[in-house]
Fold:
Amino acid sequence: ALQLHQELQINWRDIAALQIGLTRRDWDNQAHDSSESRARPKSRDAANHSVRYGVAAALVEGELGPDQYEPAKLESKDILELLDRTSLYWEEAHDNHWPAANPATIKIRTNDGREISKTFIHAPGHPTNPLPDEALEKKFRQLARRVLDSKQIDAAIAATRQLAELPDVRQLTKLVRPQSFV
Structure:
């Protein structure tokens, strides 16, 4: 979803329908939740386990991190509006890749009738599809900004670029310690 958001620069309001294709195992797990907690999650934990919520939030917000799981985001009219246009289906061909991979397909139909589809056999971050350094740094900044200031974040990133030269790993662990613990 994040890659589609970046590549297509599509506005979520232009999405008439969003379908997510999963393996049988994942489809059974996600689509048959009788509590409806995955269709419209009410808690951070339920949202964290909802493929529909994660994809909708990523397409609306352009990122998917801790902020998208805050209570206000779980009630966001924008995210809920797209979530209501989101469905899951079993993509039988994906079962051939399980358990070595956990593939998914995202299909978007726009209001003007265009159909866009993206399949990942190995999600970004999988060992066969590693994230580029820039993406790792962005994710680290996104997560660390809650406990570290920007200077600490910059210093930690700089240190990771020189791990082989660090005489002691404690230098890195000191850099990622929140100031409240110093």
User: Anything to note?
Assistant: The chain has nine helices and four strands. The mean pLDDT is 91.
